[in-house]
Amino acid sequence: MAAAGTPRGLIGRIIALRAWLRATGGKVWADAFVTVVVAVVAAAAALWLGGSTPGRFVENLTSDMRIAAGAPAAQSKFVIIKIDDDALNAMSEASPCHCLSPIDKAWLGDLIATLDSKGIKAVAVDYLLDTWSTPEEFADFQRRIAPVKAPIVAAVDPQLTPGVDFPVAKKLNYADARALIGTDYDDVVRRYDPLPGRYPALATQTGMVTEGLKPKKGDFAIRYRRADPSVKAENTGAIAPSYSAAFVAFLPEAFFKDKIAFIGRVTRSATVDASTLKDDMHYTPMRFVPGHFDGTPGVEVHVHALSQMLAGDSIHTPGPLSTALLVFAAGMGGALLGRSTQSWWLSIGIVVLGIGLFGLIAYFLYQSLAWMAPMTSPGISFALAFFILSRLAAAELQTQRAFYSSTLERYLAPQVIDRMVDGQEEVKIGAEEREITVMISDLENFSNLVASLDLETFEGVINEYFDGVIDILWKHEAMIDKMTGDGIIAIFGAPVLSPDHADRAIACAREIDVYALEIRERMIARGIKFGYTRMGLSSGIGLVGNFGGERRFNYTAYGEVVVIAARLEAANKTFGTRILFSADTLKLAKQSVPIEAVGEIDLKGVPMPIPAYTTPTDAPAT
């Protein structure tokens, strides 16, 4: 049958297993084993939950926020030529058909030539130049770019064969139009493929013809760059200075000299309510910063990728084994913190603080080392392990509280039991020798009191008396050893250690004396012959602990210290006092109270006379 206060179900079984392990291999080994097992279980559950759709959503969200917040600066070698509404209007006016789509090749050729005349280093065109309406259009475009000295990179459909499906312009370096990879279910562009097929990607080909870039195979996570500090208004968020293609001819040469120009569709707006249709905009991790709320222009994503490839940096992510170890470590941290008993709100605070601290560390790791630590699975592992261990600790606390309450509530004050359960008090219930102070009280003429009252009246009188005395004993944190009809035996300094046990005992005796005099006056006023309360106190080494047989035991004290206290209580009648205590008690007391020496007293059962003292309660303590 389960012990009182022991939780049932899974938690109860775990507590029972831990109790068995403690009995078998010791407390340290058992607690360590349970902590590791909980951490492993929490880590396994966290890895599984982290791979679910909600888990991936949170992981993507935290990763994207770190990418946006920890974005490094880009090189100052790029310029973006926007095909915006002004540019489309200018193109429409210059085009014989006044068309807005597809891009007018003659107008584009003139734009490239103008950029070249301003000292541009290279031109990358984020438009497909594999479709020509007539051979004359292709020849006219070639004529317009013939004087251009800067390398020109243009995107083409990788499904088309050059020379077969479209004519090849010798001035153009062709790039695969595919490169932007929207990963996971949310289609956010987080990766870039530098070599997607027959041709390199637009950013890759541009880097190869301008900087001698040697790309590596395989897609990579884009480490997005922060916005150029000079951009504002409708260009807010742009990675580089951005100018409308409509005004390139009128801008100073210094804006373009030795820059790599990317020509592409940009539909950013200066205001949220702008009527400009969003075209070629992609959701990226930068969507949390101004200028990217509605998406990032595709042409800018190419610039971000090229900037990263030229810088040679990359986002580092831990492998499966490293991730598993990190998640397990988070679980161990949560389990170790959860072993301490906390209130519910404090537990929530610890979990939130722990996850927040890990998030802060993860941010600085990304910002300084470009190391993208997973957050969802470690966070779940930490929280699960913490709550499992904290629940175990709470259940164990409940069991301990039930044990202490059933064992000691008859003897100790409630506040002492609470401190014992919370681990704030060192307590030993096994037998041991300890320095204590014993107080024994007795009610004068108790037999006459019993004989003179009817049962109902006697019950009310004696209960009122003992209620007040016990409240005072518990106020001074005494342990009530036993009640002997009209008297009480109390111990100060056990089972809870109390260095000031002598002071507590004297203060308690003085307060009981005041209370006993008051209740005596009330009883006499009712016509009840109520006697004085006499107390004897003694301090010294006593044998304390649980004593008795297998069927019944009691926490009590033995030794000369108990005998002396009993004899001093009885000696009050001889000397006309209400409180007597030994020289040993006076020697240990630190607080100043009124003291009167009674003299040396011969006590029955005590081989040597002992000095005795009293403390009058009509004089206040100082």
What does this entry look like structurally?
The chain has 622 residues and is α/β, with parallel strands linked by helices. The chain is built from 17 helices and 19 strands. The strands form four sheets. Strands 12, 13, 14, 15, 16, 17, 18 and 19 form an eight-stranded mixed beta sheet that branches. A hairpin with a 4-residue loop joins β5 (180-183) and β6. The longest helix is centred in the middle third of the chain and has 33 residues, at 376-408. The chain is rod-shaped. The two termini are 55 Å apart. The relative contact order is 0.09. Residues 1-5 have low confidence and may be disordered.
Main beta sheet, described?
8 strands, mixed
What oligomeric arrangement do these chains adopt?
A: single chain
Mean pLDDT: 87
- Relative strand content: 15-25%
* C-alpha-based Rg, rounded: 44 Å
According to DSSP, the number of beta strands is 19
Structural class: alpha/beta
Can you tell me the overall shape?
rod-shaped
Summarize the structure.
The protein has 622 residues and is of the alpha/beta class. It has helices at 9-25, 27-50, 53-69, 85-94, 105-117, 135-145, 202-211, 298-311, 320-338, 344-369, 376-408, 414-421, 446-452, 455-475, 501-525, 560-575, 583-588, and strands spanning 78-83, 122-128, 152-156, 172-176, 180-183, 188-192, 220-221, 242-244, 260-265, 281-282, 296-297, 432-443, 479-483, 488-492, 533-548, 553-558, 579-582, 596-601, 610-614. The protein is rod-shaped and about 135 Å long.
